[in-house]
From TrEMBL:
UniProt key word Disulfide bond: no
The family this protein is said to belong to: Belongs to the TRM44 family.
Superkingdom to which the source organism belongs: Eukaryota
Top class in the EC scheme: transferase
Keyword Transferase in annotation: yes
PANTHER family hit by this protein: TRNA (URACIL-O(2)-)-METHYLTRANSFERASE-RELATED
InterPro entries: tRNA_uracil_MeTrfase
Role description: Adenosyl-L-methionine (AdoMet)-dependent tRNA (uracil-O(2)-)-methyltransferase.
Reaction(s) catalysed (UniProt annotation): uridine(44) in tRNA(Ser) + S-adenosyl-L-methionine = 2'-O-methyluridine(44) in tRNA(Ser) + S-adenosyl-L-homocysteine + H(+)
One of the record's GO molecular function terms: tRNA(Ser) (uridine(44)-2'-O-)-methyltransferase activity
Keywords for this protein: Cytoplasm, Methyltransferase, S-adenosyl-L-methionine, Transferase, tRNA processing
UniProt name for this protein: tRNA (uracil-O(2)-)-methyltransferase
Amino acid sequence: MFDHTLATQPIPGVTPEVFYRAANIYLQKPHVVNRKLFGASTLATFRVWRGGPVDVDEFVDRLRERLSAGGEDNGIEKGVREVCDDLGWEVELLPEGVDLNGFEGGCLVLKRLLPRNLNVFKPLEVLAIVDPELKRITFRCLQDEENNLTPKFSFAVQLVEETLSIICKSTPTPDEKSSIWLKEVLFRRLLKWIDNLIQKTDQKGEQISLGLINDLEEYNRLYGELKTKYGTEMVRIWPESTDPRKFVYEDVAIATYLL
């Protein structure tokens, strides 16, 4: 499926466990490498038993056919189950936050990316397929239109022996902007996380930020509403010499949490 390597580097001493922990940081916290994102919510996580390799593009094409126009959460979950049935896979819905390492057959994870600026961007859904046999996590955006939040094309991070790589399909019209971001931003951050984990200097890197918030999407919506309604004017009339955006938007975030 993937025939093009965007970035690769040997990492002596890396283990599959360390690889999955580092990749899981990006899966659960994509906003740490993309400032346009506020965070990400998990729509569903499935354990799967499958009989063969996964073509994520084929899976997403099948899933799109089953999604309702509004993309309701239960519609996505039902669509995943139907596609898995078509492919002869058995699936089991898992609780959020499970360890993705060690599942025979692998996992499917549906994420919703939440943009910081809801006036400019809209939330997007991403499917991640965890393949323990290949030590690979494949990502594919469910929306086909152009966006500035995540690569539109499918790509994967994988570990082969002690070499980390980001791979994708060759295409006659490559998305250079996304390819550069994967190589220069995501890959470098993965290397840093893996190095930290190997050195045992960042043992809590995989924990989800904003973990005290029960409904991250509602928080994101309300934060954007308060920021637009009050934040812009407060920044404009800020009387101090300090940067108003830092203090005003921090206060807006606190107010959103309290509400």
